[in-house]
Structures are given as structure tokens and as C-alpha cells.
Design brief:
Number of strands: 11
Helix content: 25-40%
Number of domains: 2
CATH class of the largest domain: Mainly Beta
CATH architecture of the largest domain: Beta Barrel
Distance between the termini: 27 Å
Strand order of the largest sheet: 8-1-2-11-10-9
Length: 282
């Protein structure tokens, strides 16, 4: 067995305050006595020879300190990558609807069967939209603006089909043309504006931490609260795809009728970084 595995872990105590925060779907905690400051989304400078979970360094009170991506350290997708994936997906969903309207116009113009998806809940965007939960009120408000133009666009296929069957092909073409200048433009503008909304809503924080004469920072999603935990359990088996080597146990905190299960980070394990001392990590 590796000698490092034989060393005792840092076991957190129940009689201290903790900073409880989130990284993706996980709730994490650090003892408050390790925390120097929490700052908003600091600029980060990439550095060579860093592990993949170290983004680079940030400036803190005139000194460079490493910024560890908590998500990546847990073997999760980084928040930056998650936003990029969402933006790329929305770009494809925009193109889907441009292709949809072109196919509808072609069918009407050339007297073909209208085969485009008529149900706004059944297209790729509609399926995603019906289940998506925004993480901020601003993003939720923005997303609600998709509902009407998206439904109107899909309803074009229904209305056009009715007009064609009634022998009113020109009226169907006019209906589509009017929607292109109104609802489709609105829908495309919403798709185009999604990236900025996402990046505003997915701002991060950096928790500046001091541990054994080392200063570093952790990129986190949201700050939940500063409080003592009701209970701490060590040596809890974890399931899933996270890196549990940096977790020393689970804390529990009752908030109203809900009990938060909080993963307690082991700073010794978190900082087990084998890189050149000139990198700024030691």
C-alpha cells in the first residue's frame, strides 16, 4: 500500500463554522478559519506546467496565487466548459429552426407533404426547454421569452397545412413570410443573445484559502451559507464519478424541513500537487 494512503486524513470538527458552497450539483464545505476572502470572478492568467485542474494564477493583494477549479478537482465538467457546451448546443438549435423554416417554405412552394415537426414540445429545443431549470431569476426571465415565438413558429406548419388543403397556397406563403419578419426574427435574436445571458448567470466566485503557509484559491459556483454543521460523519463511501480522495467526510445541516448533505474538503489532499516550485503553487 502507498505510504501516503496510510497517513491520517484531516478530520474536520463539528464545533467550527464552515463556508458551505456549491460546485455543479454538489454541496461542499471548508472550515472558515482557513478562508481569507471571497472574491467575484477574478481574472486568471494561465501558467505552464500546471495540472489540468489549476487554471492558472489570480492576483490577490499584489501576489499571484493559484486558482484551482473545484469542479475539475472533483472530476466534474468545469463551469466554463458547461457554458461553452450550452452555447454550442443553442447555436445548433438556432440552425435547426432556420432549416425548419426553409423546409416548410420548400414544401409549400413545391406542393410537397409538410413533414416538419408541428409540435413545439417535440423538437430538440422543445424537449430541452420543457425540462430546463434556470439557475438565476434573470436567466429564467430570459428563457421565458422563448415560449411564444417558438410555439408560433411550429404552429406555422399546422396553419399552412390547413390553408393548403383549403386551396389557399398564397395565403400560406404570406403567413410564413410574415412570421419570418416577426416571430422568427425574435426567436433567432433570443438564440443569439443566449451566450451573454449564460455567461452573466454563470459567474463564479474564488475562495482565497490559507493552509499550512500556502495560499491558493478555489473557483466555486455559489456561496450558500456560513454556519456550524449539525453532524459530521467520517469515512462515508461515495458513489458516482467524483474524485472522493479530496473529501474527508460528510456534514449534515438541517435547513427548515430539508437536510443538506455537505462534502467536507480535505485541504491536504486538495493540495497534493506535484509540480515545479516555480509554478506558484508552493
Amino acid at each position: 500500500m502507498d505510504t501516503k494512503d496510510q497517513q491520517p486524513r484531516n478530520l474536520p470538527a463539528v464545533d467550527v463554522d464552515y463556508l458551505v458552497f456549491s460546485a455543479k450539483d454538489y454541496i461542499l464545505a471548508l472550515p472558515c478559519f482557513n478562508i481569507i476572502q471571497i472574491v467575484d470572478s477574478p481574472a486568471c492568467t494561465a501558467m505552464p506546467n500546471m495540472p489540468p485542474y489549476v487554471r492558472g494564477v489570480i492576483d490577490f493583494m499584489g501576489a499571484p496565487i493559484p486558482l484551482i477549479d473545484t469542479r475539475i478537482r472533483l472530476s466534474l465538467k468545469s463551469r466554463q466548459e458547461e457554458v461553452t457546451d450550452m452555447v454550442n448546443t443553442f447555436s445548433q438549435r438556432k440552425q435547426d429552426h432556420l432549416n425548419w423554416i426553409s423546409k416548410l417554405k420548400d414544401a409549400v412552394e413545391h406542393d410537397k407533404e409538410i413533414t416538419v415537426e408541428k409540435n413545439p414540445h417535440a423538437c430538440a429545443f422543445g424537449k430541452w426547454y420543457d425540462t430546463y431549470k434556470a439557475n438565476t431569476l434573470a436567466l429564467s426571465s430570459y428563457m421565458s421569452r422563448f415560449d411564444r415565438p417558438h410555439k408560433v413558429i411550429h404552429d406555422l406548419a399546422v396553419q399552412s397545412e390547413k390553408l393548403i388543403l383549403a386551396g389557399q397556397k398564397q395565403q400560406a406563403k404570406s403567413l410564413i413570410s410574415a412570421a419570418e419578419q416577426n416571430e422568427l426574427k425574435i426567436l433567432i435574436a433570443l438564440f443569439d443573445g443566449f451566450e451573454e445571458q449564460m455567461r452573466q448567470s454563470f459567474q463564479e466566485y474564488a475562495v482565497v484559502v490559507s493552509h499550512k503557509d500556502r495560499r491558493f484559491s478555489l473557483a466555486i459556483d455559489t456561496v450558500k451559507y456560513f454556519e456550524k454543521l449539525d453532524e459530521i460523519v467520517h469515512d462515508v463511501p461515495f458513489t458516482g464519478n467524483i474524485n472522493d480522495k479530496i473529501v474527508s467526510g460528510v456534514g449534515r445541516k438541517k435547513i427548515g424541513d430539508v437536510t443538506d448533505e455537505v462534502m467536507l474538503l480535505d485541504l491536504d489532499a486538495l493540495l497534493d500537487i506535484d509540480v515545479d516550485s516555480n509554478s506558484g503553487l508552493v
